Amino acid sequence: MISVDSKSDDNESLRFFCLGGGNEVGRSCHIIEFKGKTVMFDAGVHPGFSGLNALPFYDEYDLSKVDILLISHFHLDHAASLPYVMQHTNFKGRVFMTHPTKAIFRWILGDFVRITSIGEGVSATVYNDDDLADAFDRIETIDYHSTLEIDGIKFTAYHAGHVLGAAMFFVEIGGLKVLFTGDYSRVKDRHLYSAEVPPEKPDVLICESTFGIATFENREEAENRLTRLVHGAVSNGGRVLLPTFALGRAQELMLVLDEYWSENPDLENIEIYFCSALARKCMTVYKTYVNMMNEEIRRRFKTENMNPFNFKYIKTLRSLESFEDFGPCVVIASPGMLQNGTSRELLERWAPDPRNALIITGYSVEGTMAKTILTEPLEIPSSNNPDIMIPRRLSVDEISFAAHVDYEQNSQFIDLVSPKNIILVHGEINPMGRLKSALLSKYAKFRKTKREVKVFTPRNCDDLRIQFQGMRVAKALGN
Amino acid sequence: MSSTIFYRFKSQNKNSKIAFDGTGLTVFDLKKEIININKMAPATDFNLSLSNPDTDEEYKDDNQVIPRSSFVIARRYPSSRVGKGNASRYIAGKPRVSKTGRGNLAWDNHNK
Ligand SMILES: [Zn+2]
Ligand SMILES: [Zn+2]
C-alpha cells in the first residue's frame, strides 16, 4: 500500500526535507510537503557552531513556500533561528507555538542575542533585538488539545513533557496524518506532564532519537546519586557546578535540591545559587504557568497555597558580579553545554581544585565543552583565549536528568502510536542508526505485510519522498 | 576601503557587502571574507558556493577575480561528510589553484 520512490513527484507523495537536525542534535528544522501544502517544524540553531553556520541550511529551500511553521518548544536548538526566518528570508507563513513557549521565547532569545553579541556582534549577521521584537509580535499561540485549521492544514498541540510549554504537533493535510514529537519525555517528573499519545494514529511519525538505544538510570537512583555527590563535595569544602540551560531542567534540579536541603539541616549554611540573567524573569513565567504543570504541582499550589517555585534555599543571581565566591556552595548556571558565559567562567575558575565537582545533567552536543570534558581531559582551553590551557582537577560526573526518552520509553511510545512510517530526527548518526536497527528488527515480523513499518534516517537536505497510494481509504477512515 | 562587492545568501531577503581596497577579489578571498564576517568558523560541516545571479553559473575556480561592484549569490550546503566541508579550506588559507582531475587537487601553500 505504501511505496517509497525517490523520484516520484506525484500529488500523493509526502516530501520530507530536513534543513537541520538530520543525523545531528541541534538546529532542528524539518519540512513536510503534501498536496501543495507546506508545513515547517521548528527553527533552531546548533550549539556547536557559530554565526550563520549555526543555522539550518536555509539556502537549500525556498522558504516562501511554507504555509505554517510550528515551534515545538523554547529550547535554542528548536526556536532560536525563528527571528532570522521571519525577518531575513522570504518566509511569509504563519507561526504557532503554545502560550508558555511564547512567554519564555521572548526572554530566552533576548538573552541569546545579548550573549552572542559579546565579541564583535556575531548575532548582527543573524538577527538583533529589533528583529526579535518584530518577529515576536507576529507569533500566534495555540492551546494544548485545541485544533486549528488554516487553508486545509489541520493541526493540534499535545503535551510533550520535556519542558514547560513543549508540544507535539499532530498535523493533517488532505487526509494524511503526521505526528511530530519534538523533544519529548514519558516520565512524569516533579513539575511536568509526561508526553501524551494522541487519540488518532498518524501515517507518519517524525520522532526524536537523541538517546538512541540507551537506557536511563531510573529517576530515583539518579536523584540519589546527585544528592550524594553534591552533599559529599560541599562537606569536603568543595564547590559544585551544575551547568544547565536556564529553563527546563534547571527548575527540576532546583525542586530536587530545595527539597533535599530542607531534609538535611547540616546543609543549611551552604548556599545554592541559580545564576542566570534570565533567572528572575524565568521564575516569574514558571510561577505564572503553574496551571499548565502536572497535578501534584497544581495540588500543592491550590491546597497548600504554596508555589513550589518559591524556593526556600535557592538564591538567584543575575550575574557573577554579585557572587561572593568564598567557600563551599552549589551553583546552577547556564549555558548547559559550557560553551561560554557564566557556567564556562565558573568551570575555568574551579577546574584546578580537586575538591570541586562538575555534574553534567543534560544532553551534551558534539563540539561543545560539555561533551569534551566528559572525556576527563587533564586540561581545558580558556574560552577567551584558546591558547591558554587550564588544569582540570575537579571531578566530572554525568547524571542524566535529560527530559528525553530512552529506548524503552521511545519504542513503547512508537508502539502506542503505531505508525507505518517513522522518520528519525534529532540524534547523532550512531545512536540514530542503532535505534533504526532496533526498530526494524522489532518490526521484522511485519515485513511484506500490510503492517510493514518503514524507518527513515534522512541527513540534512536529503530529499525523502514517501508515496501514499491508498490516501482515499485513509481519508474515509479519518472521517 | 574604496571598493565593494555585494553578496546575498540564497535564503536571505537583503543584500550584504564586503568592503576592500583594489579592483577586485579572488573567489578564494571573497569566500574567506564572507566566512569571517558571518562568523562561520570553524566550518567543517558545510560547503560554500558563490554564483553569478544572472547566469546562475558557479564560480568554481578559486583564483577567478570578481571585479568590484559585482553582486554574487552565496549558498551554504551540507558537505557529504562531517569534516569534509570545502569551507574549512578558506579558513586554513589554502586556495586550490588548478583542478587537474578528480581526487587530484593541487594546493598552493604560499599562505602557510
Ligand atoms: Zn529540548
Ligand atoms: Zn532538542
What does this structure look like?
The complex is a heterodimer of chains A (479) and B (112). Chain A is α/β, with parallel strands linked by helices and 479 residues long. Chain A contains 13 helices and 23 strands. In chain A, β8 and β9 form a beta hairpin. Chain A starts with a strand and ends with a helix. Chain B has helices spanning 27-37, 87-92, and strands spanning 3-9, 16-20, 24-26, 46-51, 65-67, 71-78, 96-99, 105-107. Chain B contains two helices and eight strands. Chain B has 112 residues and is an alpha+beta fold. In chain B, β7 (96-99) and β8 form a beta hairpin. A four-stranded mixed beta sheet of chain B has the order 2-1-6-4, with helices on one face. A two-stranded antiparallel sheet of chain B has the order 3-5. Chains A and B meet through loops of A and β6 of B. Bound molecules: zinc ion (2 copies).
Gyration radius of chain B, in Å: 14 Å
Low-confidence stretches of chain B: 98-112
Q: What is the approximate shape of chain B?
A: globular
Task: Return the structural class of chain B.
Answer: alpha+beta
Q: Which secondary structure elements does this structure contain, and how are they paired or packed?
A:
The complex is a heterodimer of chains A (about 475) and B (about 110).
Chain A: E1 2-4, E2 13-20, E3 29-34, E4 37-41, E5 68-70, H1 76-79, H2 82-88, E6 94-97, H3 99-117, H4 129-137, E7 139-141, E8 147-150, E9 153-159, E10 167-173, E11 176-180, E12 204-208, H5 219-235, E13 239-243, H6 249-263, E14 271-275, H7 279-288, H8 295-303, E15 314-317, E16 329-333, H9 341-350, E17 357-360, H10 369-373, E18 379-381, E19 389-391, E20 395-398, H11 407-417, E21 421-425, H12 429-442, E22 454-456, E23 463-468, H13 471-478
Parallel strand pairs in A: 4-5, 5-6, 6-7, 11-12, 12-21, 13-16, 13-17, 14-15, 14-16, 17-20, 21-22
Antiparallel strand pairs in A: 1-23, 2-3, 2-23, 3-4, 8-9, 9-10, 10-11, 18-19
Helix pairs in contact in A: 2-4, 3-4
Chain B: E1 3-9, E2 16-20, E3 24-26, H1 27-37, E4 46-51, E5 65-67, E6 71-78, H2 87-92, E7 96-99, E8 105-107
Parallel strand pairs in B: 1-6
Antiparallel strand pairs in B: 1-2, 3-5, 4-6, 7-8
The complex binds zinc ion (2 copies).
